Amino acid sequence: MRLFKLIGALIVVLVFSAVSVATASAVETLWKWLPGSVGETFKGGTGKAKILALDEKGAKTISFTCKKSTILLTDETLKASSELLKEGSTEGKDATLALIIRHFEGCEISGTGLQLSSTGDIAGIILDHIEAHNCMIKKGDFGILLLMLPLTLENQALKIKITVRGDVLGLLEGKEKEKLLTFKLNLKTAGGETNKFKQQEFLKCEGGELGKLEASLDGITFEPMSEEVEGGALEFDMTKDKEGEEMMEK
After folding, report:
1. How far apart are CA 62 and CA 55, in angstroms?
2. CB 98 within 8 A of CB 87
3. Residue 182 domain-assigned?
4. d(CA 238, CA 59)
5. What is the domain extent for residue 36?
6. Is 179:3 a contact under the CB 8 Å cutoff?
7. Any idea of the CA torsion for 33, 37, 39, 45, to the nearest 10 degrees?
8. N or C, which end of the chain has less CB nearby within 10 Å?
9. Could you tell me which residues come within 8 angstroms of residue 122 by beta carbon, excluding any fewer than 6 positions away?
10. How far is it, in rounded angstroms, from Cα 187 to Cα 73?
């Protein structure tokens, strides 16, 4: 079976943070976009995003929402900001990585109406830089592991700063036997009661380590963090390949 040509690419989904470059663990089971995919750009976005962090006693310490997000095709220097990349020496320019910049709008600290932004950006706007790589969640389930670059959120009036770090795993979904312009990115929690910590639905890549998304108010003590988005989607722009062959095999 084949999954359509992703004529569009990897979305994200929200998620912030963390360290270095997206390089896959040697023990993880990876999958690759089909040859010729390197350099493809894509667009996409999500609806409402909900983020919640708790302290060790289960008290809500950080909670905020954003109304929507958009994946940017280019940054202010007009360089590609959503692009499939190769990892190491892959044959035929098949890609296993992606670069994603997401632009969140209408971000507020939950229950307060007070706006939250990434450092240096206007109120209510969060710019999230993500490096992603492909991994199998289990047989037949194609995952996207989102590794965040360092991110600090703030409300200057309240003198609040939130440091976010870590990674989160999403499931890439689509319809079989159809070539579509869009894919769905499933990034959600496993459910649970309101204001109680919700574990992510997808916890780790096959053969990999458990993901860890964290937030801190002092930059020292980090608490577990969960994140959920509505309507995650991505779409190829077809610049590199106007005939639209399939992007992966299943």
Report:
1. 9
2. no
3. yes
4. 47
5. 2-240
6. no
7. -60
8. N
9. none
10. 21
- CA–CA dist 116, 156 (Å, integer): 9
Residue type at position 232: G
Number of domains, the chain:
1
Does residue 122 lie in a domain region?
yes
Helix (H) or strand (E) holding 135: strand 126-138
10 Å Cβ neighbour count for 144?
29
Amino acid at 78: L
Buried b (16+ CB within 10 A) or exposed e, 19-52: eeebebeeebbbbbbbeebbebbbbbbbeebbbb
In this structure, is residue 34 part of a structural domain? Answer: yes
Distance CA 163, CA 225 (A): 11
Task: Name the nearest CA neighbour of 8 among 89, 119, 83.
Answer: 83
Has residue 247 been placed in a domain? no
Matching residue, tokens 């399939």: 246
Distance, in Å, from the CA atom of 231 to the CA atom of 42, rounded to the nearest integer, reads 16
